[in-house]
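I am writing to request your help with a piece of structural work I have in hand. I am sending you one protein, given as its amino acid sequence and as whole-number tokens for its backbone shapes. Kindly check, if you would, that the fold set down in the tokens agrees with what the sequence suggests. You will find the record immediately after this paragraph:
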Amino acid sequence: MSEALRPADTILLGRTFTADPQRPMAHGVAMRDGIITAVGSADELADHTGPATDVVKCEGLIAPAFHDAHIHLLEGSLFDCGVNLHDVEPAQYLDVIGAAAAQLPPGAWVRGGGWSMAAFPAGSPDRRWLDDVVGGRPAYLTARDGHTAWVSTRTLELAGIDSGTTDPPGGRIERDGDGEPSGTLHETAMKLVASQLPVITDAEWAQALELGQRYLHSLGIVGWQDARLSPEMLGAYLDAESEGRLSAYVAAAMHWNPAQGTDQIDGLLHSRSLATGSLVSAGMVKLFVDGVVENETAALHQPYVATHSHGAPLFDDAELRAAIGSCVGEGFNVHVHAVGDAGTTRALDAFEAVRPQSARSGLRHQICHLQVVADTDVPRFAALDVIANVQALWACRDEQNVSLCAPRLGPDRFEQQYRFGDLARSGARLAFGSDWRVSTPQPLAQIEVAITRQPPGDGVTAKLGEGQELSLTTGLLGFTREAAYAAGLDERTGTLSAGRSADVVVLNADPFTVAPHDLASVEADMTVFQGRVVFTR
């Protein structure tokens, strides 16, 4: 018997979405020694069946295991080790914070976050509310999107922030009517507190990874780009890989600090040299070119409606081109955060300047979020071979978008948000990422919004934007083949085809037969990574 026809360890039988353009659908997949040996019909797979083969009949849909193209797994999971407000109703925020503070020793920091900006006037909670429940302790609680921090009076005192402290470039200190800091710090103003925060230990990072990995496996996810890593966080992944605790592919996007400029290249090269195993890579650098619309730090071509500000770009054009040019010169892929249309234009301009060298080196650059994109920039993604890394769950009239973004953008620009349909029609490659813990990492919930442009399960609220809906197939590809491509893993995983890693998810229902507004209810029944079951419901 030839090697190709040796009996499989496991055969999964059922309707199969392969994400392989050569054979998009099949009736099952055969796996042996962690590798896919065959994808095809039941008759074709019968040739791979032996006395010891485990044949599993699946009722829902068999698909490539999912990949998340933009997530903050370590930072997001760390909330489970502190004060986690992500799934808490706003009316209960202070009760939860106070209960957590009561368990801490005197003087200990109250750390965590996940609060919704939409829960507070102008997205800015007050320090005195925290003071009432934390017992004089320093407190630092980040907003759900990670771009704003709510801090107590004691925190401001420790950091030396008072009425005379000026706003740092790219950030803002919210102030009360007397000019005193009110307890909300936006963007780079959060860094004014950074030197006072307690250091997160290796054990805490290890615990966060364990919790986060287990959760993602329960959603069918076996690979991700962790989109802002420090050397310590990379170390947590490398330790887990060397100790056999990591059961996923991780593309580490190392954080670029604008204040350090090109002097940080040696440190990035050192980090990349440490990732020599088969699961973790560190050949990517993450840059922020702007902030977010909710606090008016996203960089816009036309000003915000009320303040007439254009936002807060974190680089001038020369600095951005130097940063991206230095990364490309050392062979790094670049992952850019850009929310506003002016931020996206600047990023595309910088990528255009290095396009010849990027093409010669086979580099894969991407811009994530893309909340507002100018008409003239839509076709540039395909022309420059820049991946559109999109977060589909936000592309609807949810509470935060309506209450905080609409009044800042105005009605016309509000309807032009998240132009996924236009990008797809222009030929752009779309990779899907959740930005968890900003929003759910559940792939089918995000795909539902991409298809309907309405909140999950909501068939009543008006759709956001005209003609921006995507197909179910595009959504599934965004979380499989395209997300794997964005992470540089497309030769190993992301599709079900012979010779690829046996990375498979079995869903409890077939999304192609489920009503669009029920897609969020589709769950993973089983997740397989390199032929090993890492989750079963």
Q: What stands out?
A: The two ends are 36 Å apart (CA to CA).
